[in-house]
Every structure is written in structure tokens, then in C-alpha cells.
Amino acid sequence: MVVPICILKLTRSKAKDYDVGAIMPTKTVTIEEAASHLLELLALVKKGDEVIIAKRKKPLAKLIAFPRPEDNEVRTPRVFGQRRGEVWMSDDFDEPLPDDFWLGSHT
Fold this sequence. Notes:
Blueprint: E1 6-10, E2 26-30, H1 31-36, H2 38-47, E3 50-55, E4 58-65, H3 99-103
């Protein structure tokens, strides 16, 4: 089983959105630094740090730890049919939508 240790989250937010120094340590690197030091950056992320990858001093992506369920947390399996009668599907669910819906004149 492969367990992801991080995700790369692309964002268009402004630099002020990354001011989380009081919450968790943040490190900003260039794209070139990220490419050449990826294993070291992943080690920082695994410890709980955030890594901002910047292009021309503007934040481009944020490398953060992937949320993992607690080791002592027991997951109960899903049971098929548990919500029977609470969920329904319209009889015309798979019918094509009218042209006015696609043209934007549907209200």
C-alpha cells in the first residue's frame, strides 16, 4: 500500500495568504531549488513545515503534509443500502437537457 506523505497544492493567492509563521514554519524556495532539493523539502514537510515554491518571487505552489488518519482511529466499513429510501433519483435523470438550458436562457 502506498501512503502519500504530501500533496502539491497550486494556488493563485497573494503572498499575504502565506503568512502562517505563527502557526507552522514556512520556507520559500525557487522552482530550481525545489527541483534540486526535493527530498530535503519532503523531509521538512513530513515534520509539519510548509514549503512555498515561488517563481520570480511570487508564490506559485504550496507543499504541505497530506492529512493522515490517526493510527489508533478505526474506520468502519461502509454498508451498502444503509440510506435506502432517503436518496432518490428522478425518472428523467438520464434524459438530455433542453437546448435552452445549454444556451443560457433557462430560468
